[in-house]
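Risk register update: the risk of archive-format incompatibility is retired. Evidence:
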Amino acid sequence: MLILGKSSYTAELFLNQSKVDTSIITLYKKKFDKDDIMNLDENSFFSKYFLELNENFQCTLNFIHIHESDPDLEIKINSKLCTKFKFAFNRMKVPKNIFLSSVNSSKHANTAYGKAKFNCEEIYRTIENSIIVRSSTIIEIDFENKLIKGGKKGRSLGSLNSIIDRNYLIPVPGKGDYLQTVCFGDDLGKFLNLILSNNRYENKTVNFFTGEFLTYNQFLNIIFNFKKIKRFKIFIPIFFINYSLKILNFIIPRLNISNKNIENLTNQKIEFDYSNEIKEFIKLKKFKDLT
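Archived output:
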């Protein structure tokens, strides 16, 4: 098995949960040069990055996403990399290829991240026996410190935790009635381990989440109850937030503050719900159980 993006948070979750014999796991260590991704033809890219592997892999797991400040570049470079991966997988005759996508992936996504993920999904859908896993917001629970940690090694919810701990008024973009789904990191690791040996999800896209369709308001209320604190929400129109960010960036260009976090927060979509079926294999933890 070939792991691409071994240092990503999600890859670490999988490796920590995996019951696969580590002797059959190859962690790809070479860094893909951005100029090579953009400019090399597929055969040259394969020769430089994959030819030396010379192994018969039964599966690949791709955790890679390249973030760029330029939205168009972020979409283009990730799409090109997946196209080159497809060529490499075909040359190596890998029978199963798994792509880690996101709940923010959508044909109508507003962010470069969501658009790039969707473009990569479309490339993977042309690979036979591929599996696309759209994970929701990945969380871990620190019961001792009453913290709900997110992805990026626990840092993605760091700002929210800080705001909740230090303020009684909690700003909420819009009305807070939009979808907010989560998954527990160890459950995601178990699911990835499952689909390595189970062909049930081949040629499918799977939204992986707890099975709970929460609003952002409900999500916050669960956090408040978990921490045993009382907080009040203040609802801020999304157009006002976006307009304010534009004004700030115009006045102080070096700030370069993006609204992508707001758009990722408010544009989650569950299009491929297999949660009831997945429960047959994994006892999915529930976010509501924290209360």
